[in-house]
Amino acid sequence: MEWIERLGKYFALALLAFMWPVVDAFSRGLIAPNRAGVFAVTAATYCVIYGWYCLLGHKRPGWAVPVGTVLLLTVLAAALEHLIALPNLNFFLIPLMVAGFRLAPRPAVITIGAITAISIADSVLVANKPASSQAVQVALYVPGLLLFGGGAMALRYLITTVAELRAARAETAHHAADRERARIARDLHDLLGHSLSLITLKGELATRLLPEGAAGTNEVRDMLALSRQALQQVREAVSGYRHPTLATELTAAGIALRAAGIELDVRQSVGAVDRETEAVLGWVIRETTTNVIRHSGAKRCSITLTQEGGLLQVEVVNDGWRVVQRPPGNGLRGLEERLASVGGTLEALPLTDGGFRVHVAIREGASSRSVRTAEGIST
Hints:
Layout: H1 2-14, H2 20-27, H3 33-55, H4 64-84, H5 90-102, H6 105-127, H7 131-209, H8 217-241, H9 246-259, E1 263-268, H10 275-296, E2 300-308, E3 311-318, H11 330-341, E4 344-350, E5 356-363
Parallel strand pairs: 1-2
Antiparallel strand pairs: 2-3, 3-5, 4-5
Helix pairs in contact: 1-3, 3-4, 4-5, 4-6, 5-6, 5-7, 6-7, 7-8, 9-10, 10-11
């Protein structure tokens, strides 16, 4: 995806080709000598602001940077048109593109309409032609400007849709891999686990039946030790395949909390994540809901999972006002160790109005090694 982002930057910078009237005005001597310096500085400022936005500004969160960029470019476009003393709508195309591509749909439509109105009004003032020719000019220019801004909105919608489809496909593949791992773990447990348990049982029986010092006793004991070791290895392999997932842990949490008479509210906006991170998030849900059931005396519990700016956050809040809740115990300490292995942080604090809040934050891509999971956590 990095090469796509770089290509998008270069494509956006290529839109500076719309500034060709600046070069044309100098080459044809259309700029009055007393305005040439101001015109050159204004055009250079326009290009610098847009270039900064393409390379760095578009990464800034919030609406202030795109709105400020659109406003500055629109003012500079109007100034360029007045300095050249000729109507030229090319200068307004770039702010139209920034507004359509970066702003939310409703503000984008309003901004595109406003820029179109400003550009037409400015062109009419600069042209200073009869009303009939101005009406024809407006009729020709307005659809083109609106289509350009609408095309930028459509391009943004297309790119967003493709990104969402990629994320959905990755999540589908992730869930398919999880199901396959669960099937393999189940088969290993059911087939090899049963057979090795039977071999171990038979070996123990054989050692009891054989008299002490009889031929083959040591071999039977060695076979028994090997079968126990193999059984332990199968159990460890099955445990490694059975990583908890967000979907299964959220479902299990809902069932457990409702059975305990606790109302659950889940808000989930996390997409596909790597296996180790999802395993840790699954343990977070399991441990925190277990603590809610065992220690909180709560009536309501909320679980919020968000994914924003490469930061995964989980917040579990309960209203356990009836009992004094204990400070973090072994379960939360163990959870903090799991989070440390993937570069995550844990905050567990009682609320002033009663209840308890656990907040977990994990930076995507921060995990540097696999997270080893066990069958359960002591709480």
